[in-house]
Design a protein that fits this description.
2 domains, mainly alpha
């Protein structure tokens, strides 16, 4: 029997740990805080930078990609079903808390991803990979966003694992206009 690796890249331990940490805090708030005002304040103070990806904005692309990679797409559908079932149970248990702790932050994260997408592309020539997006080279920003600041590197080589984007960005840096770095 062939054993399947859960993580293909060791660097994925950090985002997986981050995701479980966010979930643990959210579940702790959901089950441990009774006062809705205190709950809302805790959620606002703990709002993660990017806890979820912009599912709505990438839906068409995800389905098209899923047709090319049915095994991965099947896994995505299973994870989505499990997530929605869990969220449904939490909404059933306490709708107000579920909206404050889970649904609200998800919507804010989706809005933030859309805002960041606009900021990275607005007014640029989208026909040129090197001039099509703004990059953010801050180590802190890239730590909490899993290297999404290396946007040009991502566009030049979209299949490159996120942990390898900084090195690839360094190779491309001189070809990126200074005002976009």
């Amino acid at each position: 029997m062939k054993r399947t690796k859960i993580l293909r890249y060791p660097a994925d331990r950090w985002p997986l740990s981050y995701t479980f940490m966010v979930l643990a805090v959210q579940l702790g708030l959901f089950f441990g805080v009774e006062n809705l005002w205190i709950l809302a304040l805790c959620v606002i103070l703990f709002q993660p930078v990017q806890a979820v990806k912009n599912f709505a904005g990438h839906l068409t692309w995800t389905i098209a990609l899923g047709q090319r990679y049915p095994k991965v797409y099947r896994r995505l559908k299973i994870m989505t079903a499990v997530s929605l079932a869990t969220l449904s149970v939490l909404i059933y248990l306490d709708p107000a808390k579920a909206m404050i702790v889970f649904v609200g932050p998800m919507l804010l994260a989706i809005f933030n991803v859309a805002r960041l997408g606009y900021v990275q592309y607005a007014g640029l020539d989208l026909d040129d990979h090197f001039g099509a997006s703004r990059n953010i080279e801050s180590r802190l920003y890239n730590l909490v966003t899993f290297n999404s600041g290396y946007h040009t590197a991502h566009h030049v080589k979209p299949g490159l694992h996120w942990s390898r984007l900084p090195e690839f960005h360094r190779q491309l840096r001189d070809r990126i206009p200074a005002e976009l770095r």
